[in-house]
Here is the input.
Amino acid sequence: MADPQKTIARLRAEIAEHDRLYYKEAQPKIDDQAYDRLKAELAQLEAANPEFDFGAAPSPTQSVGDDRLEAFESYRHRKPMLSLDNTYSSAELIEFGQRLLKRFPEQALTYLVEPKIDGVAVSLSYEDGALVRAVSRGNGIEGDDITSNVRGIRGLPDKIQGAPTVLEVRGEIYMRHQEFERINAARAAEGQALYANPRNLAAGTIKLLDPAEARSRQLDIVLYGIGACEPGNYFSTQSEIQQKLKEWQFPVLEKYWLADDIESAWKCIEELDTLRQNFAYPTDGAVVKLNDFAQQEEAGYTSKAPRWAIAYKFEAERAETLLKEISLQIGRTGAVTPVAILEPVQLAGTTVSRATLHNEDEIQRKDIRPGDTVLVQKAGEIIPQVLSVNLAKRPADSQPFIFGEHLKALGIEAERDPTQAVWRIVSKDDPIRQQRALEHFASRACMDIENLGSAVVEQLVKRGMVQTQADLYTLTEAQLLELDKFAEKSAQNLIAALEASKQRELWQLIHGLGIPHVGKQSAKDLEANFDSLEAIASATEEQLEAVDGIGSIMAQSIHAWFADSDNQSLIQQLKAHGLNFESARQAQADGVLAGKTVVLTGALPTLTRDEATKMIEAAGGRTSSSVSKKTDYVLAGEAAGSKYAKAEKLGIAILDEDEFKQLVG
Ligand SMILES: NC(=O)c1ccc[n+]([C@@H]2O[C@H](COP(=O)([O-])OP(=O)(O)OC[C@H]3O[C@@H](n4cnc5c(N)ncnc54)[C@H](O)[C@@H]3O)[C@@H](O)[C@H]2O)c1
Here is the structure.
């Protein structure tokens, strides 16, 4: 029998380390369920052995995980931000209700059941209706000032009407699945460590020190609670909070339920489980709260969580299956990414036959080998991941997977990047690397060259007809006729498609060049801020970084790419072939908004933000997110906040939607 005192000490140290990785680094090593199991084990041992004294440090079972970092200013919450007790069992949920019934034997208990959003907690302070500060949960008492990374999150009002003098609004910052996949795909292409889920990526993003880098990742926010409120007595129930938050035009929960007893609350949770796939935000459970504030106050708090609420967490969908082989894929920049090829298995409503293995270090850490039986998880729309290996089912003759040897066996000449976990094909003459770069260039999201699929690219490279993107434009019909399955018609079609691609928009070309870190959105951001490809090529790192959405790493990468002599010669050749290098903005130089900067604020009566932005761009203008002396117009809708006030102060022309429409015709 293990010594319980030693086990408690070990578990506390282990959990403290997982807390550090999760809250401070946003890179946990184990998944939430495994973590929650460790914590439950510790709580049980502590309860059974109350006599052990471990000194002053509180146990992780008694305290709120701490996300504070040195580099940030700390702010004290007016009211503490606590965690929630959680359970994965419906029986424990019912017990929670029964405990409350004992406490309030004569009273009717109503519960509010809310989706539990899987993001990062935030507290927003509004003073006299204006957003003054955003603070992370921290240790529950004080948190980090993350205002610069939170202000400007879409839909978050800068100003609210008819609010109390002081208001702390509590909610969750989260990332949509699509944005998560976009960023991870870009990181994978660069061989950088991937984020395991949108929650970790959101947590990493709000703690970025570079606001431009943070802005280049799209965060969202939803608000569901109130901390401090002065004057008090503003609310008497949880459901009133929901209504008021909506009136104040905060992004709010799309659905919540009122339940008259804990059994009905459980029914609501079951309903939530069927609906949540269609919610905009990732959810990992439900939060059940006593609706009445007087009852909440009476039920009280532990050092870590309210006694009047509980989180019911949904189990992530997992299954065991056979890992048939580890396949190595090569990206457009030559990075080699390992992928698990699985015996197909049903998970979260889809058939899963591949899972990401991230990089060499991940394979080593988990000691994943071909022939292993592995535990695979799929949550929401996230790419399936291999969580662990079932060692009991490992074949006797199994061999560790040695990355470098497999590359050699496949004839791939790659080197491990000394600073990252990635193997990369270094030689630009490598035919596989050339193929990937060309496939990317020809793809829909780039130059959209019809009839130039992988099979054709492969032949062109293998026969030495094409090495770079520029070589594509030297191809003749006669040359194409040499290719397998090419007749006159298909050759003519491809030549015509190449010709048509010369007129693509500038962002499509930028994206197609395969500059490390530059995806579709960044390419668009570059086009919106420069007149031509040459202007981007000659921009300094500072000028690149000044672009909204371009962070320092991306600016460095773009600058280095254009400084490379091979790339410079590629650009010259593409220019000589007549590809469009001019930004649409430049082409619209004659528009009424040519050279003008417009700031959008508030909700417009009929136009969406996207539509208004397109109209501004079509008229030659550009949009910016903040009002300054350089702003020419502010297009203001309903509930326009501090930007409106600033524009008035600076004497900048303010347009409503009708005036704007007249202006751009
Ligand atoms: N994998 C790891 O290594 C690791 C390490 C530490 C923590 N964790 C995970 O984090 C959990 C503990 O984190 P926690 O303290 O943030 O607790 P929690 O995430 O389980 O619950 C509390 C949080 O829920 C959020 N929340 C979402 N929707 C809400 C709603 N409608 N109403 C109220 N709150 C809502 C709030 O941000 C609140 O702070 C653990 O149970 C574990 O799953 C994992």
The longest helix spans residues 4-24.
